[in-house]
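Researcher: We're teaching a course module on how sequence relates to structure. For the next exercise, students receive a sequence and then see the predicted structure as tokens, so they can try to spot secondary structure elements on their own. Here is the exercise chain.
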Amino acid sequence: MAWNRKPTYGVDPERGDEWVAPEETLVDAASHFADLELPVDDSIWRFGTILLSLGSLILVGAAVWLAVLQHDTFAGIAWRNRTVDISVPPPRGIIMDRNGTPLVTNVPSFDLLVVGRQLRRAPDGTLPDIVPLAHALGRDPEELTLQINDQLRSSAVFFVATDLPRDEVLALTNNLPPGFSIITSTKRDYTDSEQFSQILGYVGKVNKNDMAADQYYVPSDTIGRLGVEASYETVLRGTHGQVSFMSGDTPDQQPATAGQNLVLTVDADIQKQLFASLSSILHETGLTQGAAIVQDVRSGAVLGMVSFPTYDDNAFSGTLSQTQVDALFNDRSRPLFDRAISGLYNPGSTIKPYIGMTALQDGLITPHQTVVNDCISLSVPNPQDPAHPYVYDNWRADTGPFDLFRAIANSCNVYFMTVGGGHGSFTGLGVDRIAAALKAGFADQRLGIDLPGEEPGFVPTPDWKWQTKQEAWYQGDTYNISIGQGDLSVTPLWINTYVSAIANGGTIWKPHVAARTVDDARQPITVYPAISLGTLPFSASVISTMQDAMRGTVTSGTASLFKDVPVPVSAKTGTAEVIKGARINSLVTAFAPSDNPQIAITVLIEGSASNQGYALRATNTFLQWYFTRATLPANSHI
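Model: And here is the predicted structure for the students to work with:
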């Protein structure tokens, strides 16, 4: 009999594990697992609440920090996103001579600026304002359009024209289309440029290296390249201004602050006369290269300094032509090279006062001691060929005994070769004592003049010769440095500085060209004091003896041309052979008045064929002018 069987929901143990009925999936009574649904633990709720609270606090704090504490910062960013800022180069400080005469001034310069986002464009992308603008500039409209579009690819703001003439500026002033602005700046105008360029130098556009080295600079800036423009760059350059452009608004301008004005120790009248004195001789003789320097012996202040050939520093205010580039940078005569402080020359006989003082200081000689009985030649045995000794001729034949005074006055080579290197029974100073004395007087160092490019002199020694040439030092080498020849080389600046020290009694002043900075009312801001580097390594009596000996060069020696100068002059002439028997350099160094020294002057003229006294003549022209002026310069202890 059949009936409906009530279903059961168990597991039949006799079926094994072969299969599971569908209803068996609901059975978990025999499972070793806990119930699948468990309540959430309270600790989890607490952790979530804390995390949510912390997040809310952070969000509130960030909102306060952004909206309140950093308001000014982000407002500035927002403003900058709406504006275009242009840095305006400041006017450089004026450079004046010691009497306040401007040597360089600033003249207005007008540049046309393009702000790309403000340019007006037609639907086809062209610039409808270009045609009238190009006509005002005297440019071809198509060419100007190409220039603007090309520059827009690399910069959103740029100058499309610089140093605009005044008539173009007037034509544009009231008719500038949107996106164009005239920016007023300045450029340098050097008065009597060629006469002062070696001192003043020039300015040029900054380059990538300049901007990488100093974050002050922006691409529109200029920077001092030579002279005081370079050495006093941070004083002269000033503080940038700023022009801010905002769409639809008039540009907001913050004016630049000009640099400080610089007063030099240089006297403009002295500089011009020194230039004229040297220029006249060079023009007359067909020579082109030379240098001269005048200093106050009481302070080291440079009153005038020239170097030939010179250059026009105004040329750098615009774009140089290829002809100008070749003349300035590729000419073998190197017009940018300041021979007075950078040129290394054999000092020739101008070194003899130094050698004489060294011998006096060491007790090797006395002032009136006869060292040689004539000044014709000096003969030294030749070990390799005894029949043919080495013979050193004097520059002229002078007979009779020579002491220090006569040797200085007549520039006797034989005397100083004997004193320096010895001869016969007379033991000379020797190279070691000469080199030590020269180095004690800074002959192998930079003196530290406040102009770029000064070179240190060179004092040769036996060790140097062996290390560089693998040659032994000979007696003839000592003879050479004793008369300022051979490998001994110094600058005209060093010669003038050591002669200034003789004149003032022994103080070696640091040469300098800057006196002070002043404000627009000419009131001092910074004063640059005179600095003593040390003293000559000689006693006061030795220096006094040399002062007298150098006076004898004028009264009875090779500088007798100076007898007609209105005040007594002390001097030493010199020649240095550049190409044996073919070319010499002519030198003179002097100080005056002899009894109350004010100035020292050194003049060098390069490359004359023979000793014609060119430097002597140029120096005489200057001294005659200097000491016959109606008003002599005030004491220049600055």
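Model: If you want an answer key for the exercise: The two ends are 142 Å apart (CA to CA). The first helix runs from residue 42 to 69.
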